[in-house]
Structure formats: structure tokens, C-alpha cells
Write a structure and sequence with these properties.
The complex is a heterotrimer of chains A (about 325), B (about 300) and C (about 325). Chain A is mainly α. Chain A contains 13 helices and no strands. With about 325 residues, chain C is of the alpha/beta class. Chains A and B meet through helix 1, helix 5, helix 6, helix 7 and helix 10 of A and helix 5, helix 6, helix 9 and helix 10 of B.
Chain lengths: ~325, ~300, ~325
């Protein structure tokens, strides 16, 4: 039964991926005419060379030919070549992937670590000034543009502190170019972008934890727990929180597929050498093929992530398999 | 319509307690509107949005009578002015008046936001209604398509599309809507599926109503609350996306002013004028906040069962 | 007369709402002796559950504003929260109506059943679990050791309620309060659970307070019964007597409104006219008078007190206290 479900989901995922390739290649079709890998670095390519390069990539053949060649390439790990220097996109991606994961992973962990206590406090002190203050902050958190928050943090913690001769935080890169690379240096670089990125998660998850907690605390089994004579702390944190966290985990899980793409704006603002910043830089240079390769790679991760999540759910909850 | 006998016409059994109040029954819309009106913060936020929209619409008037500057008037002798006279909010790196640019920027940003919402809702609702109502292979194919669109990380898709197509305000709205409609379609489809089961639908169909009539006159009004909520909350999110794209330089290009592109490269302004970083950001923040507050108020008013205390 | 085990004296519990103060428990008094079974009967909103919760000091957000709850020489309304916690689950145990929602879904059943002894007696896991398993067996759950490792949703309704009863008994409490223990169950299971409660009362000697709106349940199980209406006790006495010759119009009407084996075939059921009163604005005098067919003038003015009517019953009714037969 589980196997049948898995096969169904796998099949659906494959179709989705194929569809995505179709969509992106249709979009990219308008660039086929001008697409010459490596032309930016070498404007003196002779027409014969250009023709040869284009033929190698099947650019002058009919669309379906190009499409199938592209799929074939992808299956072999070739996600295209940069239009700037012809280098393989996949190597750029793999270079930067760890950086992006470091950033977004930290942000998610930070988000959870801060949201849960905030949410619990909000639920326990419902209606109090603390609770209202937290609601205000979290509502505001939804309205702040990420890039602007980043700029402000840089303004305060890098520029202003430096101007006043105080120790300041670096505002770009993942590590200092000179004499850096140790864990403290990396942390100093990580802290601001990770905070900005986690801010949005915070706003969302702390409110969610709060309402989840409130709902759990109104359940009958909490009344039973109290009737058994246990202290309020045990009631709330053992019997209550265990249940309240379950929907939160679901919510956090939904963010995982977006791990690769979510940090793009933050990466750009903070000069963080990740995949998002790569896509951005290449986009400014009209390096269509790189941007497309990155887009497709990220999509693959999203689909794989969703599939994994569905599979885990099916394992944990037998009812889903029979839907 | 079936199921809508006014409560005042129903006969209560004679053992009803005396002194029971006889409030007149209200339609769902009236009740929701009343609930919304009672929410003062939400209403204030909604009014603020209207005011901002009005200012944005009347941008040329403001330019002429309030600030006396064109939004693209360059004055290299007055760069990085601090707020005061004659530039109420100062000037930018090319000496252009910040206040005027903010007002014109509002036109662009708010205009795109509303257009995007309109496009998303129209396409999304149509697809959602059709797939939810008919089911079958139409549902399979269309929702699979929605899955595809929603699998692509939006930000990459936006970037890709903005270098493929020249981003004017209208094309930018179309680009953002091309992803947004998917979420709306899923939402509407979900609502349709739950409404479809209800007895009045089966009853109406058994009376011989045609499909289109069923969809438009019966399904749609029941789906509307969800749409209204989605629209109100969506405006804020779209403003943030659009501003981010502009900021990256991949959206609206200068000299056309937009709140996002006024912040592009603003890191280099830090040493000259902090105001240039603050004003556009605060404007975005306030607008999105108002939109979110209003959206929350709408949601609480039209769909109280969603209310989280 | 020996001192009773648990005695509630003139208890008042109120809830503050935006419409006013709801007097959920409005001067309730009763007592229970060791090993006795007492039924508390009343419709929804009569205050029976709130009374029980007040005894356990779990009435939040309500407030106990006056009265005493005497238990083994101490007034439970006045003891500290720490002391109260020791009593809860250990000396006075309470089980609730819906075992599906009353058991925590993420913990194994055996663990939950063992929790009270672990907490109150400080036993280690193994010892507590063995007690739990043995108790699960005693309440009639087959293969208790294996079932103890199951989660609540894996049990059927009746089994779940048995597990809840086991959970209440592991600490051998003096009093067991059962709030509508059979209401959420099928009729056939109801009989089994009631049977179990009877056995428990006999074998363990636990005084049992059974709260229900179902007169049949009381008849089968409780030696004594108190009838509540609008937050007040309107009648109390031995079940046999109360059911045979009720001394309060409310009890009398209740008994006439349920189908009975010994009634004439074509006799229509007589529901009680009217609706329960608003607990914020109680009518003056006797709370039942608007629906009472025996009322006299005094009923609309003065609140009747519980007094002996007949040999064994107490009733709060001007009419019956003056000797009138219902």
C-alpha cells in the first residue's frame, strides 16, 4: 500500500518536473536566436565558431529537438553553460550551494528557537501587555521589506558603529577576505543576514505557536492533567507543548523546499556568496542560460522536497495512503 | 433562493420563552460589514490605504501645487539635501525631490499591486471554479499545471522573466500575477469542493439549473468571502515583492520612480544622507502594514471561524 | 453520626462574563461518606459539573466566592495550591465525559495511567508501570501489558473509558468523581462501564460521586442522589425514596417526562414547559417557579431552603414543605 502511494507521488512529481522544463524552455525560446555561450568573453569569435557552438547545443534545430537535448543533458548533470564564459552552470551552483544552505538553515533554526518561547509566553500571558506588544511586533514584522531591514541593520551595526570607533559587524561576504575564515569571523558575517532572514519566519511562527498553544490548552486532556494533580509547569510544557508543536513542525517543514531560493534578496544585500546572489549577478549580465539552469535546479529541489515531505507523512499517518 | 428564508418568517414553537428578543435577521453581507465597521484599527487602516491611493492618483496635482517639482527633475547642485525647505523630504543623489518621487512612486507601486491582484483573482478564480465544479480530467490537468507553476521558486521565475521581457508596470504586474494565480486557484477550488457538497447545490441542480448558472449565481457568492480575504492580504505581499524586484534593479527602471528603486544602491548613500534610506522604506512599511491590518480585519469580519484569539 | 468524608457547605461559584455574573453554583450543600455512592442529577447548565470542578479547585475561570468544602478536616477552598495538588489525583480523583479528548493523544496510554502514582508516590517508571498494567487488567482491559503501549486513539470508546477509570484509581483515592462517564458511549457499553464503577466502589471502597443528566444511570448505581436546578440543590435523599415519591416539583416533572416500563401504553410523555432560567438574572424566589404547576404566591418571592420533607428526603420547596403531596 505504501509502495503504491509512493509510485503515484513519484509519477506525479516527474510530470511536474517535465512540465516545468517545458514552461521554462518555452520562455527561453525567445533567446535562442541570440544565445551564444562564451560570446561575452570573446567577442571575436568567428562566425564558424559561433555556428559550431550553437550546433553543439542544438540551438538551430526545431524546438522539440532542443528540448530533448536539454533534458538529456540535465539527466547527465549538465544544467547548461554560462553565456559569459561557457563554464558549466552546475559547478557554479555546487560551489555556492553550501553557503546558501548555511544561511537559510541558520535562519530557520533561529526562527524556531525564538518563535517557540515567544509563542508560549504569548499564550500563557494572553491579553497582557506583553502579549499585545508581541502581537504588534509580529504584525509589523510582516510589513517590513526584507531588503530594507537589511539595509537598516547595516546602517546601524556596520556603518554607524564603525564611525564611532566601536567594534562593528561586517556587512558583506561570508568571511573576511584577509585573515578571516575562522569560526568567529564566519559567525560575525552570518549574524546579520541570518537575523534578517529569520525575521519573517519569526513573525509568522510565533503567532502560530501562540494560537496553537492556546488551542491545545483549551483541550480536555489538559483538564485531565490538572485533575491528576500535577504542577502547572508540567501541564503546560509536557502535556501542552508536545501537542502544540506538531502543527508548527508541519509549518516549518513547508519552508524546507524553499531553502535554496528564499534568501536571494538577503544574499544580494549582504553580498553573501550563495546561489541567489549568483542568479542575480548573472541576470544583470543577461546570462540567460545560467539563470535558467539555477531556476531549474532550485525547482528540482522543491519538487524533491515536497515528495520527501509527502512520503514522510504517509509513513507517519496511515490514513493518508488510502485517500 | 433556496435556504434563504428570512428568520422572521419562521414560526417558533409556542413554548418559546417570553421576552426573547426579536432581532431582525441580517444577511451575511450586512453582518460582515457591521463586524468590519466595528473593528476600528482595521477601518483606520483601510481609510489610510484609500488616502494613499488618492494621493497617488493625484500625483501631478501634488507635484504642481505642493512640492513644485517634477519627479525626474535633476538638479546636480542640490544633491543629498536634508529635509526642510524647499525640498520637504530632501533630495536624492541626482537632486531629484524625494517627496515628489515618493508620491509618483506610490502610483507605480499601488497601481501594480492592484492590477496584479485583479489579474491573479480573475484567472485564479476562473480556474478554481471550473476545476472544483467539474472535477475529472479538467481538474487533473489544470491542477497539475498549477502544481508546476507553484513548484518553481517565485523569485527565480520573476528574475528570469524580467530579463526576458521588458519590465514595464503592466508587464511586471503580469509577471507577478503569473505565479499568484496558482495560489488563488487552489484556494477557490478548495472552497468550491466544500460548498459543492452542501444540500442547496444538489437541490438547485435537481431543479434543472444549468451549469453556468450554478457556478456563477450560487457557487461564486459563497466563494467570495475567501476571495475578499485573499485579495486584502495579498496586496501587502505583492507590494513587498514588487519593491524587492525594483530594488534589485530588475523591475521598474529609473527615472520612473518606485519605492523599491529609490532604495537601489542606497548603501552608497549612507554617508551622504540617511534620509534617502529611511523615507522610501518607511513608506513601504506603513502601506504594507495598513494593507495587512485591513486584510486581517476583513478576514475576521467575513470569516469569523478563522479567528485566532 | 460519623463525620462525612467530603462535605460541601453552601458553596457559591460565579463566572464573570460581559453580560453579567453567572451564578453557576448558588448555595450548594451535600455530603458523602466513605464508600458511598452519590448521584448528582440535573440538566445542562444546572451547575453539577461546576460543583465538581469547584471541589477539585479547577473551576477557573470561575471563582469560589463563599462556602466550604470540608475534606478530612480541611477546607479545600482555603488550602494552598501545593496542598491542593497533592489531593488532586491522589485522594480525590476525577474522570471526565469524553475519553477520546480527555486522554493526551501523543502519550502512550500506560504512561498516562501510571503518571499519577509516579507523581504522587514518587515511584520509578517500572514500578509505576506495573501498577498501571495491573489496574488496566482489573478494569477489564484484555492483554493489559500490550495495550498499555498503545495510544489512546487505538482504543475503542468503552476501553478508553475503562483506561480513564484505571487512571483515576491507581493511587487508591478516597473519592472518585465521575462527570458524565457514560454520556459519550454507546448504550451497551454504558451498562458495562456502570457495572465497572459499581465493582470499583465495592472492591476498593472508593466513595463515588456520579454526575449525570440521566436518571436511569442514577437509579442503577447510586445509593443517594441530589437533584440540582439552576445552581441549587432542590432535592436530596436515598435514590429509592426520591424516585418513588419525589418531594420537589422539578424532580417530579423529570420523572414524569421519561418513558417508563410501568406507564400506560397511550400515555403521552409530559415534557417540562419552558426553558431553564438565565443564570445571570435568576427569577426571584424559587428558581423553578416559572415552570412549576404547583406554585403558590410565596414561591415567587422567597427562596426556599432545603428542609426535611418526609422521613429521609430534603427538598427546597414551599409547597411540599407545607405538607402538600405531589
Amino acid at each position: 500500500m505504501l509502495a503504491k502511494y509512493l509510485v503515484r507521488r513519484l509519477f506525479a512529481s516527474v510530470i511536474v518536473v517535465l512540465g516545468v522544463t517545458l514552461i521554462t524552455l518555452i520562455l527561453m525560446d525567445r533567446t535562442r536566436g541570440t544565445y551564444v555561450p562564451g560570446i561575452d568573453l570573446n567577442p571575436n569569435l568567428r562566425p564558424e565558431d559561433i555556428a559550431r557552438l550553437r550546433a553543439n547545443l542544438g540551438l538551430d534545430r526545431p524546438f522539440y529537438d532542443w528540448y530533448l537535448t536539454w533534458i538529456w543533458n540535465v539527466l547527465h548533470g549538465d544544467f547548461g553553460r554560462s553565456m559569459i564564459d561557457g563554464s558549466p552552470v552546475i559547478s557554479h551552483i555546487l560551489d555556492r550551494l553550501p553557503n546558501t544552505l548555511e544561511l537559510t538553515g541558520t535562519a530557520i533554526i533561529l526562527g524556531v528557537l525564538i518563535s517557540v518561547p515567544l509563542g508560549v509566553i504569548g499564550a500563557l500571558r494572553r491579553g497582557s501587555k506583553t502579549d499585545h506588544a508581541m502581537t504588534v511586533v509580529s504584525v509589523a514584522g510582516f510589513a517590513v521589506p526584507q531588503f530594507w531591514l537589511g539595509l537598516l541593520l547595516i546602517l546601524v551595526f556596520s556603518v554607524t558603529l564603525e564611525q564611532h570607533g566601536l567594534p562593528w559587524l561586517p556587512s558583506s561576504g561570508a568571511a573576511s577576505a584577509i585573515g578571516g575564515g575562522d569560526i568567529l569571523d564566519r559567525l560575525a558575517h552570518l549574524i546579520m543576514p541570518a537575523t534578517v532572514l529569520s525575521f519573517f519566519y519569526l513573525s509568522l511562527w510565533s503567532r502560530f505557536t501562540r494560537s496553537s498553544m492556546l488551542e491545545v490548552l483549551s483541550q480536555d486532556y489538559i483538564r485531565t492533567a490538572r485533575a491528576k494533580g500535577m504542577g502547572e509547569r508540567r501541564v503546560v510544557y509536557l502535556h501542552g507543548l508536545r501537542n502544540a508543536l506538531i502543527p508548527l513542525i508541519t509549518l516549518v517543514g513547508l519552508e524546507l523546499p524553499g531553502l535554496v531560493s528564499g534568501g536571494l534578496v538577503v544574499e544580494v544585500v549582504f553580498g553573501w556568496p550563495g546561489i541567489g546572489k549568483l542568479a542575480f549577478e548573472r541576470a544583470l549580465q543577461y546570462d540567460y542560460s545560467t539563470v535558467m539552469g539555477i531556476t531549474f535546479f532550485a525547482t528540482l529541489l522543491v519538487v524533491a522536497g515536497n515528495l520527501l515531505a509527502d512520503v514522510l507523512y504517509a509513513i507517519l499517518d496511515p490514513r493518508i495512503r488510502y485517500a | 433562493m433556496l435556504g434563504q428564508t428570512p428568520a422572521t418568517e419562521i414560526q417558533l414553537p409556542s413554548t418559546a420563552f417570553e421576552g426573547e428578543s426579536n432581532r431582525p435577521a441580517q444577511s451575511y453581507w450586512n453582518e460582515s460589514w457591521e463586524r468590519l465597521r466595528a473593528n476600528r484599527i482595521g477601518m483606520a487602516a483601510g481609510v489610510l490605504i484609500l488616502i494613499l491611493g488618492a494621493i497617488a492618483l493625484a500625483a501631478p496635482l501634488f507635484s504642481q501645487f505642493l512640492t513644485h517639482y517634477q519627479y525626474d527633475r535633476i538638479d546636480l547642485l542640490s544633491t543629498f539635501q536634508t529635509p526642510g525647505h524647499p525640498h520637504l523630504l530632501g533630495t536624492d543623489d541626482l537632486g531629484r525631490d524625494t517627496l515628489t518621487r515618493l508620491i509618483y512612486g506610490g502610483r507605480v507601486t499601488l497601481g501594480i499591486a492592484f492590477l496584479t491582484v485583479a489579474l491573479s483573482l480573475t484567472l485564479g478564480t476562473t480556474v478554481g471554479l471550473v476545476t472544483g465544479y467539474y472535477g475529472g480530467w479538467i481538474d487533473d490537468i489544470l491542477m497539475r499545471f498549477v502544481d508546476m507553476v507553484l513548484s518553481i521558486p517565485a523569485i527565480f521565475l520573476f528574475i528570469l522573466m524580467s530579463i526576458l521581457f521588458h519590465p514595464t508596470p503592466i508587464t511586471l504586474a503580469m509577471i507577478i500575477a503569473s505565479v499568484g494565480w496558482g495560489g488563488v486557484a487552489r484556494l477557490v477550488r478548495g472552497e468550491v469542493l466544500s460548498v459543492k457538497q452542501r444540500e442547496f447545490m444538489v437541490a438547485t441542480k435537481s431543479v434543472g439549473a444549468r451549469d453556468v448558472r450554478l457556478i456563477v449565481r450560487h457557487l461564486l457568492p459563497n466563494v467570495l468571502p475567501v476571495l475578499i480575504v485573499a485579495a486584502s492580504l495579498g496586496v501587502g505581499q505583492i507590494i513587498l515583492i514588487e519593491a524587492a524586484l525594483d530594488f534589485l534593479g530588475l523591475g521598474i527602471q529609473p527615472p520612473t520612480a518606485s519605492w523599491g528603486n529609490m532604495l537601489t544602491n542606497s548603501e552608497s548613500y549612507f554617508f551622504h544622507s540617511v534620509w534617502l534610506v529611511i523615507f522610501p522604506g518607511v513608506t513601504i512599511f506603513v502601506t504594507v502594514l495598513a494593507s495587512n491590518l485591513f486584510g486581517n480585519a476583513v478576514r475576521d469580519a467575513f470569516d469569523p471561524r478563522l479567528k485566532t484569539h | 453520626m460519623a463525620e462525612s468524608l467530603l462535605e460541601v457547605r453552601d458553596l457559591h461559584t460565579v463566572f464573570a462574563t460581559k453580560h453579567g455574573e453567572v451564578k453557576a453554583v448558588d448555595g450548594v450543600s451535600f455530603e458523602i461518606n466513605p464508600g458511598e455512592t452519590l448521584g448528582i442529577v440535573g440538566e445542562s447548565g444546572s451547575g453539577k459539573s461546576v460543583t465538581a470542578m469547584s471541589v477539585m479547585r479547577l473551576q477557573r475561570p470561575g471563582k469560589i466566592v463563599s462556602g466550604k468544602v470540608m475534606f478530612r478536616g480541611r477546607d479545600l477552598t482555603k488550602v494552598s495550591e501545593t496542598e491542593m495538588r497533592e489531593i488532586r489525583g491522589q485522594e480525590i480523583a476525577m474522570i471526565f465525559q469524553d475519553p477520546m479528548t480527555s486522554l493526551n493523544p501523543v502519550f502512550r496510554t500506560g504512561w498516562q495511567v501510571a503518571e499519577p502514582v509516579r507523581l504522587h508516590h514518587g515511584w520509578d517508571k517500572a514500578r509505576a508501570m506495573s501498577v498501571a498494567v495491573s489496574m488496566l487488567g482489573k478494569v477489564g482491559i484484555p492483554s493489559p501489558a500490550a495495550r498499555a503501549r498503545d495510544y489512546p486513539h487505538q482504543f475503542s470508546g468503552g476501553m478508553r473509558q475503562r483506561a480513564m477509570i484505571a487512571m483515576g484509581l491507581t493511587t487508591t483515592p478516597k473519592v472518585l468523581i465521575a462527570d458524565e462517564p457514560t454520556t459519550a458511549l454507546d448504550v451497551t457499553i454504558q451498562a458495562q462501564i456502570l457495572d465497572l464503577l459499581r465493582h470499583v466502589n465495592r472492591d476498593f471502597g472508593t466513595a463515588t460521586i456520579l454526575i449525570t443528566h440521566n436518571l436511569g444511570v442514577v437509579a442503577g448505581m447510586c445509593e443517594r442522589v441530589i437533584v440540582m436546578y439552576a445552581g441549587r440543590v432542590v432535592e436530596s435523599g436515598p435514590t429509592v425514596d426520591v424516585f418513588a415519591h419525589p418531594k420537589h416539583p422539578y424532580t417530579w416533572s423529570l420523572l414524569r417526562s421519561i418513558p417508563r416500563l410501568d406507564a400506560e401504553r397511550h400515555e403521552p410523555l409530559k415534557p417540562i414547559d419552558g426553558l431553564p432560567p438565565d443564570l445571570i438574572e435568576l427569577p426571584p424566589g424559587c428558581a423553578f417557579h416559572p415552570r412549576c404547576q404547583f406554585k403558590v404566591d410565596r414561591c415567587t418571592r422567597d427562596v426556599p431552603a432545603l428542609k426535611l420533607v418526609g422521613e429521609t428526603q430534603l427538598a427546597a420547596c414551599w409547597v411540599t414543605q407545607s405538607g402538600v403531596e405531589l
